[in-house]
Amino acid sequence: MPLFGSDSKTKSSLDGLWLKCNNCGEIVYKKEVDKNLKVCPKCNYHFRMSAKEWIDILIDQNTFHELWDNIESIDPLDFKDRSRYRDKLKEAQKQAGVNDAVVTGYGTLNDMFINIGIFDFNFMGGSMGSVVGEKITRLIEKAAQEESNLLIVTSSGGARMQEGIFSLVQMAKTNAALSRLKKNKTLYLALLTDPTTGGVAASFASVADIIIAEPKALIGFAGPRVISDTIGQKLPEGFQRAEFLLEHGMIDMVIERKVIKKTITQIIRLLGNTEKKLTAS
Ligand SMILES: [Zn+2]
């Protein structure tokens, strides 16, 4: 019997059990991928993860405290294309289980205090609107004030077009907040996952003290096709992938998911704040 029969009932029940890898195209057992931190066991492709899955991997059990989960977009432009933006937001909230494209909060990472912001690509492609910008800014300001560690895990298609200029100003707003970190010893780490593009790549994702990326993650401002059409040239192999950016000095390291917590732990022990305790926050 073929793996995916023509019977739609059989297909949908199998869909939940098996995954087709985006990279090698192999059909892999979903449970095996989940057990492997959502990395393909055949080719090492790093599947996208939700904000909640990242918290489970990085933050010590039962230590995560979410902040500002009540901030929601007010649809400043009363935007409508095929459907109304405010309806899209409600739909995305229901589907992704988060209030907007970034989850912010604090907790401990191997017993060391950390402020963390994690993008959720399931929410409108991780796009940055006024809510994302505000939450990231508040997180940066909190870290600056406390001189405590800051980690932002990015996965974003860029600015949220439904908020127009209100999305674009978030780049300046978040970077202005980051300039306050320079005045003290706050360690800021960015973990760039697939894909980190547009306004997020062009702002806070690119100016961290240490920029870490996942293997083969797409990182860049405009998409490769747009660039290729604009300059009228063929782009080099692996252009805008994490390994290419590492070779060209744009990022500091490419780290596999299975050792990411260990790596961040080592960096904080060397350069971060190891004094601050969770209870003091
Ligand atoms: Zn694969």
Q: What can you tell me about this protein's structure?
A:
The chain is α/β, with parallel strands linked by helices. The chain folds into two domains: 1-47, no CATH class; 48-280, 2-enoyl-CoA Hydratase, Chain A, domain 1. 34% of the residues lie in helices and 18% in strands. It has helices spanning 8-15, 30-35, 51-58, 85-96, 130-146, 165-179, 198-201, 224-231, 242-247, 260-271, and strands at 18-20, 27-29, 65-67, 102-109, 112-119, 150-156, 188-197, 210-213, 219-220, 253-254. The strands form two sheets. Strands 3, 4, 5, 6, 7, 8, 9 and 10 form an eight-stranded mixed beta sheet that branches. Strand 4 (102-109) and strand 5 form a beta hairpin. Helix 5 runs parallel beside helix 6 (165-179). It starts with 7 loop residues before the first helix and ends in a 10-residue tail after the last helix. 38% of the residues are buried. Residues 1-14 have low confidence and may be disordered. The structure holds zinc ion. Zinc ion is lined by residues 21, 23-24, 26, 40, 42-43, 45.
State the main characteristics.
2-enoyl-CoA Hydratase, Chain A, domain 1, disordered N terminus, 8-stranded mixed beta sheet, 281 residues, binds zinc ion
